[in-house]
Amino acid sequence: MTQKSIQAFLLADSSALEETKEIKFTQFAEPFVIRSMTADEFDNITKRSTRRTKQNGSIVKEVDQNKLVDTLVAEAVVTPDLNNAELQEYYGTIGNAAGTARKMLKAGQWGDLIKAVQDLSGFDQEPVDELVDEVKN
């Protein structure tokens, strides 16, 4: 591989991986702002959402899908600040950023927010629909 071809894969501007998008929900005067997640960030979220259990003498890793989605949303929402103490106190969700978003939104809006985060982060449409359906159920 030549030096020139390597140069084609060096990011001249890392902001290309840092996209944002506004999502308007009718009950709020301001839109939510979400950001894209990198593959490395998603991997870290997946690891934090994985539990290890012992089954038949073996350690089995299982991803807690609810925790994965909650953590993904909590880390992707830029505005409002879901970790804001005043916001969490208002919604009765102290220490639970994703719980705050869940209390703020209707069920379908929660699914739309998840889908928007995943779309912005480059996930294929089919797995997104399956995950949104799973969350809605």
Describe this entry's structure for a reader.
The protein is α+β, with helices and mostly antiparallel strands. It is built from seven helices and five strands; from the N terminus they run H-E-E-H-E-E-H-E-H-H-H-H. Strands 1-2-5 form a three-stranded antiparallel beta sheet. A two-stranded antiparallel ribbon has the order 3-4. Strand 1 (20-23) and strand 2 (32-35) form a beta hairpin. Helix 3 crosses helix 5 (97-104) and helix 6 (107-120) packs antiparallel against helix 7. The longest helix is centred in the C-terminal third of the chain and has 14 residues, at 107-120. The radius of gyration is 18 Å and the shape is flat. The chain starts with a helix and ends with a helix. The model has no long low-confidence stretch (mean pLDDT 86).
What Rg do the Cα atoms give? 18 Å
Termini gap: 49 Å
Instruction: Classify the oligomer.
Output: single chain
Largest sheet: 3 strands, antiparallel
**Could you tell me the strand content as a percent range?**
15-25%
Helix content: 40-55%
The overall average pLDDT, rounded, is 86
What is the strand and helix layout of this fold?
Blueprint: H1 3-7, E1 20-23, E2 32-35, H2 39-48, E3 50-55, E4 58-63, H3 65-76, E5 77-79, H4 85-91, H5 97-104, H6 107-120, H7 125-136
Antiparallel strand pairs: 1-2, 2-5, 3-4
Helix pairs in contact: 3-5, 6-7
